[in-house]
């Protein structure tokens, strides 16, 4: 099961495999470290770039920044069936940081280093989460004051297009709809799961707001790659919930499952239908199978000794000759500052 591990230089909170088919072996791991100070807290962070294969982990580059809450590679071929507006050989990595900035890095295809392309101050509040739309031309950012901003990437610069007060408390999740880019889903510490119509350019553009289903804050949202009508939400209340949004103004919950520990990250596998990886904070990591009305835990991974925050599948062509021997998972945990690379035993 376990392939390799690496100690990071700070508290680990996000891991992301590159989405570009040429660079599926590249893995970025982000950190956020809070240092108490008599005047004001100091928040530091870093992104470590690894080559991750069945042979192990190899560190390629490391860049330092203010405390990093989230990172996302821009979509490429195979991600929602689109090609990003950046060149195919230069994937972009978006970074949301505690100083209120969104930064884009470009991957150098020869020496595998991360080069800063541009950065934009989104807010005086902290940037907590970031996500790309399916075209790779714009991003959405959730902020610690409950606001949400959208930014467009043109000619090597970021430009804010909209900002609005979406929630009362921290916005932990933002997700553009893969087929309807004018729709943006958000989740917050105010326990609400919401959808916005970006064409309205107004804080009154709420498509729906569910405030009753989640007993605690909504931490993450994921859309099914094979069925865009299916959404997942994860919450501090320890439940993963399955939503049907065919009636977008009144989505209904189909099923739910308690995973134990707050559900901080949810990642669908891009090739294996209904397979979901979950980071469950105090209860490690879980692999979940969703099949129609059935939702079950296939496997748990508890080798980390700290808060389970970061998790991702490698997007390689893992299903080969009917087997799944190449299926790799990366996870990280906060206080032990550890990145782990492993293979699920239940999917051999």
* CATH topology heading: Methylamine Dehydrogenase, Chain H
Low-confidence spans: 77-88, 318-322
Q: Helix/strand/pairing class, anyone?
A: mainly beta
Q: Cα distance, first to last residue?
A: 10 Å
Short structural description:
The protein is mostly beta strands and 348 residues long. It is 0% helix and 54% strand.
Describe this protein's structure:
This protein has 348 residues and is an all-beta fold. It has one domain (2-347): YVTN repeat-like/Quinoprotein amine dehydrogenase (Methylamine Dehydrogenase, Chain H), CATH 2.130.10.10. The protein contains no helices and 28 strands. The protein has strands at residues 2-7, 12-17, 26-35, 42-53, 56-66, 68-73, 92-97, 101-107, 114-121, 127-132, 138-143, 147-154, 157-165, 171-176, 183-188, 193-197, 206-210, 218-223, 230-235, 239-244, 252-258, 265-268, 275-279, 285-291, 294-301, 308-313, 329-333, 338-342. The N and C termini lie close together (10 Å). The model is unreliable at 77-88 and 318-322 (pLDDT under 50).
Supply database-style keywords:
348 residues, single chain, globular, Methylamine Dehydrogenase, Chain H
Topology:
Elements: E1 2-7, E2 12-17, E3 26-35, E4 42-53, E5 56-66, E6 68-73, E7 92-97, E8 101-107, E9 114-121, E10 127-132, E11 138-143, E12 147-154, E13 157-165, E14 171-176, E15 183-188, E16 193-197, E17 206-210, E18 218-223, E19 230-235, E20 239-244, E21 252-258, E22 265-268, E23 275-279, E24 285-291, E25 294-301, E26 308-313, E27 329-333, E28 338-342
Antiparallel strand pairs: 1-28, 2-3, 3-4, 4-5, 6-7, 7-8, 8-9, 10-11, 11-12, 12-13, 14-15, 15-16, 16-17, 18-19, 19-20, 20-21, 22-23, 23-24, 24-25, 26-27, 27-28
């Amino acid at each position: 099961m376990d392939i390799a591990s690496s100690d990071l230089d700070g508290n680990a909170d996000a891991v992301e495999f590159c989405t570009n088919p040429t660079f599926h072996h590249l893995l970025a791991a982000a950190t956020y470290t809070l240092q108490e100070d008599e005047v004001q807290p100091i928040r530091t962070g870093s992104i470590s770039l690894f080559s991750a294969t069945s042979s192990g982990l190899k560190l390629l580059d490391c860049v330092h920044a203010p405390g990093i809450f989230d990172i996302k590679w821009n979509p490429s071929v195979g991600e929602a069936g689109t090609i990003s507006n950046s060149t195919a050989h230069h994937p972009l990595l978006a970074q949301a940081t505690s100083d209120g900035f969104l930064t884009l890095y470009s991957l150098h295809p020869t020496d595998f280093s991360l080069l800063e392309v541009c950065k934009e101050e989104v807010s005086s509040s902290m940037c907590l989460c970031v996500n790309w739309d399916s075209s790779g031309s714009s991003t959405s950012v959730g902020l610690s004051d409950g606001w949400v901003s959208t930014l467009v990437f043109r000619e090597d610069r970021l430009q804010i297009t909209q900002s609005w007060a979406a929630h009362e408390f921290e916005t932990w999740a933002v997700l553009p709809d893969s087929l309807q880019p004018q729709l943006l889903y958000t989740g917050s510490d105010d326990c609400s799961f919401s959808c916005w119509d970006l064409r309205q350019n107004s804080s009154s553009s709420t498509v729906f707001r569910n405030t009753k289903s989640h007993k605690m804050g909504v931490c993450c949202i994921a859309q099914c790659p094979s069925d865009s009508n299916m959404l997942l939400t994860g919450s501090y209340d320890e439940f993963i919930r399955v939503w049907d949004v065919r009636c977008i103004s009144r989505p209904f919950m189909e099923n739910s499952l308690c995973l134990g520990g707050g559900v901080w990250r949810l990642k669908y596998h891009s090739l294996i239908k209904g397979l979901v990886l979950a980071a469950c904070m105090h209860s490690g990591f879980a692999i979940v199978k969703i099949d129609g009305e059935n939702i079950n835990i296939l496997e748990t991974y508890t080798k980390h000794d700290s808060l389970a925050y970061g998790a991702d599948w490698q997007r390689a062509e893992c299903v080969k000759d009917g087997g799944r021997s190449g299926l790799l998972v990366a996870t990280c945990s906060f206080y032990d500052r550890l990145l782990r690379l492993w293979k699920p035993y239940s999917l051999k």
